[in-house]
TrEMBL record:
<dbReference type="InterPro" id="IPR041399">
    <property type="entry name" value="Catalase_large_C"/>
</dbReference>
<keyword id="KW-0376">Hydrogen peroxide</keyword>
<dbReference type="Pfam" id="PF18011">
    <property type="entry name" value="Catalase_C"/>
</dbReference>
<dbReference type="InterPro" id="IPR002226">
    <property type="entry name" value="Catalase_haem_BS"/>
</dbReference>
<dbReference type="InterPro" id="IPR010582">
    <property type="entry name" value="Catalase_immune_responsive"/>
</dbReference>
<comment type="similarity">
    <text>Belongs to the catalase family. HPII subfamily.</text>
</comment>
<keyword id="KW-0479">Metal-binding</keyword>
<feature type="compositionally biased region" description="Basic and acidic residues">
    <location>
        <begin position="8"/>
        <end position="23"/>
    </location>
</feature>
<keyword id="KW-0408">Iron</keyword>
<keyword id="KW-0560">Oxidoreductase</keyword>
<dbReference type="InterPro" id="IPR020835">
    <property type="entry name" value="Catalase_sf"/>
</dbReference>
<keyword id="KW-0349">Heme</keyword>
<dbReference type="InterPro" id="IPR024708">
    <property type="entry name" value="Catalase_AS"/>
</dbReference>
<keyword id="KW-0575">Peroxidase</keyword>
<feature type="compositionally biased region" description="Basic and acidic residues">
    <location>
        <begin position="34"/>
        <end position="43"/>
    </location>
</feature>
<dbReference type="GO" id="GO:0004096">
    <property type="term" value="F:catalase activity"/>
</dbReference>
<dbReference type="Pfam" id="PF00199">
    <property type="entry name" value="Catalase"/>
</dbReference>
Length: 678
């Protein structure tokens, strides 16, 4: 039962049993009728009307008409992959959850990344919160950790969720804008619901324009419980930490990439998994003892608050590796039904009012979108046996035998039977509930600005500059002067300098309001305090006819050895010759690519560079330099860097020895941005 190889492959084999390979097979109807003509409908004469009796035509068109299911109201734009999870050591002291006991056990997982605001057609580099939802196929049932790349949320009570989404979605009178928050209704909601203050700082930060799905954090957002075999409960928050570090785009890059490659993030994930560059995250937990629930200045059940890592450290307990792309995006990524209410024994809920509402909403959504029997679809089906008295419904796959479909019964010896908690059955933790029935928010949820100030204090000067620009851009798109002023006033409650700087960009003066007195910072919140690795970073290699082939090959081999991914770029696609007459494959032309798609550039050049090559290379270099990226050059290309006035600038590396150059340029690539160019 606990052999890691067998458990890991159980879900894979289950999915493969539904895979149909049509290659080399005869064309048939869905009922298996072999089709002799799929080009012409049945007509009364070759120019006559189509006949209703053409069952093949009816089946094909009727199925086509229904190929789309309703897209998700939120998180519609998504992409996923399969993988495995392994715990580092048994967590028996904290939880009974089976998948957190045995380090040799490989639990299959499916991870869906997504965007909150946009439709399925939105650009993937829009400024938006990213969904980070993981389905664990455990031997005791499915556990779904459904979260985001930000640890807090906009609102405290789920009854306000429809209002939030109505505000962030395109305005209904003109259906504008798509997948963006830079409009009146969103900021009207924010300024009218100041519990969102801290969340706005997060979404205006670089966290919402990530470099890659592989370089974002994931958070469970809510407070859950871990329960051990002795019935001891502790509060927990879940974190995913990317092994590649936490990295982002610049706003200008994000906008341009949206036009150059609106599928930028999914392409990056797909290509790297196909190449064997498997993304990895460590699962971390923050744990608070039940008796310490009220020992903080914030309410631990408030979803608009985080637990500062300096107060409650994150302990890394396991690792997830994505190692397989989907076989079919619709059947898997689109039909996967993720739900924060899917828990296993040893994990339980808390009274977080946002979580409590999601427990209803997600089930209701999946039944509406995917159908009554959505759990029976291959991507949603547990790896453990399923037995119950639920029957029928639309698109049922399971064929239940026997006449008994109720409990209690005597005809089937009262089966399927219940399982006591002592034998592995799920038992809800008996948390104490008391109080009058009221529609109210707990007073402990009332502080909306302290953690916003903590976040602001934790940012580096560069990050603060980006946040100010982001607020200024967003509010610059808001037509209502009143809403602009309300937001500037709200920012003044957080930090006077922040409010003043944003106000200056909008010719507004912040009101005289009480400012948060928080002076602490949390280094864990700054993206500058992250891993800096070269693994899978792309280098655009600019080459022209007659370039120094031997030297270039030597440099590129070293860069590849250091984990970088060189991409040959030239005037046209196809092949190009070096100075020895050897042919090289050109991966992209100046016309088909853009400098925003690369993490750095290496200018090779040639003795007699083509004027068009020089002009295009100049444009690539200037844009990359303005985006603070590393730029390297061979001796033949150094003249162009001098003409541009950037030779010797931070992050600009010139080649006088292939070995030394490769080392220095690799170090520059690992750093990724050279902010001292500001």
């Amino acid at each position: 039962m606990n052999e890691p190889f067998n458990n890991e492959n159980k879900k894979t084999e289950q999915l493969k049993s539904f895979i149909r390979d049509n290659t080399g097979k005869p064309l048939t109807s869905n009922e298996g009728i072999k089709i002799s003509d799929d080009e012409n409908s049945l007509k009364a004469g070759d120019r006559g009307p189509t006949l209703l009796e053409d069952f093949l035509f009816r089946e094909k068109l009727a199925h086509f008409d229904r190929e789309r299911i309703p897209e998700r109201v939120v998180h519609a734009r998504g992409y996923g992959a399969h993988g495995i999870f392994q715990v580092y050591e048994s967590q028996e002291e904290l939880t009974m959850a089976h998948f957190l006991q045995d380090p040799s056990l490989k639990t299959p997982v499916f991870l869906r990344f997504s965007q909150v605001a946009g439709s399925r057609g939105a650009n993937e580099t829009d400024r938006d919160v990213r969904g980070f939802a993981t389905k664990f196929y455990t031997e005791e049932g499915n556990f779904d950790l459904v979260g985001n790349n930000i640890p807090i949320f906009f609102i405290q009570d789920s009854i306000k969720f429809p209002d939030l989404i109505h505000a962030v979605k395109p305005e209904p009178d003109n259906e504008i804008p798509q997948g963006q928050t830079a409009h009146d209704t969103f900021w009207d909601f924010i300024t009218s619901n100041q519990e969102s203050a801290a969340m706005t700082l997060w979404i205006m930060s670089d966290r919402t324009i990530p470099r890659s799905f592989r370089m974002i954090e994931g958070f469970g957002v809510h407070t859950f419980r871990l329960v051990n075999k002795h019935g001891k409960s502790r509060f927990v928050k879940f974190h995913w930490k990317p092994l590649l570090g936490l990295h982002s785009l610049l706003w200008d890059e994000a906008q341009k990439i949206g036009g150059v490659d609106p599928d930028f993030h999914r392409r990056d994930l797909w290509e790297n998994i196909e190449a064997g560059n498997y993304p990895e995250w460590e699962l971390g937990i923050q744990v608070i003892e039940e008796e310490d629930e009220y020992n903080f200045t914030f309410d631990i059940l408030d979803a608009t608050k985080l637990w500062p890592e300096e107060l409650v450290p994150v302990r890394k307990i396991g690792k997830m590796t994505l190692n397989r792309n989907v076989d079919n995006v619709f059947a898997e990524t689109e039909q996967v039904a993720l739900h924060p209410g899917n828990i296993v024994r040893g994990i339980d809920f808390t009274n977080d009012p946002l979580l409590q509402g999601r427990l209803f909403s997600y089930t209701d959504t999946q039944i509406y979108r995917v159908g009554t029997n959505f759990q029976q679809l291959p991507i949603n089906r547990p790896v453990c046996p399923v037995h119950n008295n639920q029957r029928d419904g639309n698109a049922r796959y399971v064929i239940d035998q026997g006449k008994v479909a109720y409990h209690n019964n005597s005809l089937a010896n009262n089966t399927p039977y219940t399982v006591p908690g002592t034998k592995g059955g799920f038992v809800t933790y008996p948390s104490l509930v008391h109080g009058y029935k009221v529609r109210a928010t707990a007073p402990s949820f009332d502080d909306h600005f302290s953690q916003a100030k903590l976040f602001w204090n934790s940012m580096s000067p560069v990050e603060k500059h980006h946040i100010i620009d982001a607020y200024s851009f967003e509010l610059g798109k808001v037509n209502s002067i009143e809403i602009r002023q309300k937001l500037v006033n709200m920012l003044a409650h957080i930090d006077r300098v922040l409010a003043t700087r944003v106000g200056e960009n909008l010719t507004l003066q912040p009101a005289e309001v009480p400012e948060s007195t928080v002076t602490e910072s949390s280094p864990a919140l700054s993206m500058m305090n992250t891993r800096y690795l070269t693994n899978t970073l792309k280098v655009g290699v600019l080459v022209d006819e007659g370039f120094a082939g031997e030297e270039t090959r030597e440099v590129l081999e070293m860069l590849i050895k250091n984990g970088l991914k060189p991409v040959i770029i030239s005037v046209r696609n196809g092949m190009i010759r070096d100075d020895k007459g050897d042919q090289w494959v050109v991966n992209a032309s100046f016309l088909t690519t853009s400098p925003v798609l690369y993490d750095g550039l290496y200018l090779v050049g040639s003795e007699n560079a083509d004027p068009y090559f020089i002009n295009r290379a100049r444009a690539f270099i200037v844009e990359s330099y303005n985006h603070f990226k590393p730029i390297g050059s061979s001796p033949l290309g150094e003249k162009l860097l001098q003409e541009l006035g950037i030779a010797g600038k931070p992050g600009v590396v010139t080649n006088h020895s292939a070995n030394v150059f490769s080392k220095v340029f690799t170090e520059a690539m690992a750093k990724q941005r050279f902010w001292d160019r500001y």
